[in-house]
Amino acid sequence: MVAWFAAHGRDLPWRAPGTDPWAVLVCEVMSHQTPVARVVPVWLRWLTRWPDASALADDSPGEAVRMWGRLGYPRRALRLHETAVAVRDGHGGVVPGTYEELLALPGVGPYTAGAVAAFGFGRRAVVLDVNVRRVLARVHDGADPTAAAPTVGERARAEALLPVEASTSVAWNAAVMELGALVCTARAPRCPECPLQADCAWAADPPPARSRTTRRQPWHGTDRQVRGRIMALLRASHGLVEEATLLAVCDDPAQARRCLDSLAVDGLAERADDGVRLPL
Question: Which residue range or ranges hold the HhH-GPD domain (predicted)?
């Protein structure tokens, strides 16, 4: 796996030697449920403006949301800002280096803590994202994972497979993640290209192809689209936006108000006497 990764791994900016843990943390939060190609330009702009956690913590959460742009799931920007504040106030602005300390940060779960420990600090840590789970389940069980989140058994298996030597374990984690992203994909695995094919239960007895029965969630006219339009207006303004302007983003005033109210509840919009703005 390590040799395969050395030959086939993508040249991504956060994989460059010397990338610090803060940059790795930002990458991991941005990459959740988001294609890498969309993450790269936002990640580069983000780190140019906020090269460390303290720089972000000293700025407003609204500016984090603005810089997040159209990356999707903008509440992640708020969580990342909360993490930055915790790093500044609780760790002197330096991202902590152990899995346990990372897991204690707001907005950081088991996967992100493991990824930052491994890729930011070079530590031996289990990294279980959706790609790693899929690869290990197919190789050993001949089937995709069924649980929504990693089970105790999955973590135990990943721990048992993880190389003992720290640097090799980091490369192994990156390799399995990359294999799941590029070869052992969810819908169309390219088994002949896989370095694990000879040892894979899935490749030995592939399940019958399943026709796709689920439909894509519609976008036009949904609350998601309306929320996106409201957020676009707020990001474009560096001051207050009249509520009437925000409620005019769609033909249904009730839907627009519902979406604006939900953004306020999520902490992505802040009402003031004369309008609405990104959170201060």
Answer: 30-182
The whole-model pTM stands at: 0.90
Numbers of helices and strands, H then E, in the chain = 16, 2
The pLDDT, as a whole number, for residue 211 is 47
**277 close to 236: Cβ distance less than 8 angstroms:** no
34-53 pLDDT per residue, tens: 999 999 999 999 999 999 99
User: Please, what is the average pLDDT of the chain?
Assistant: 94
Long-range (24+ apart) CB contacts under 8 A made by 200-208 are 200/138, 200/139, 200/142, 201/138, 201/139, 201/140, 201/141, 201/142, 202/138, 202/139, 202/142, 202/143, 203/138, 204/142, 205/142, 207/142, 207/143
Least confident of 5-19, 134-148, 199-213: 199-213
The domains of the chain, with CATH numbers, are 1-214 (1.10.340.30), 223-277 (1.10.10)
Q: List C-alpha distances in Å: 138 to 131, 177, 196.
A: 11, 14, 10
CB atoms within 10 A of CB 108: 22
Residue type, 271: R
Query: DSSP secondary-structure letter at 241?
Result: B
> Residue 11: pLDDT band by 50, 70, 90 thresholds?
very high
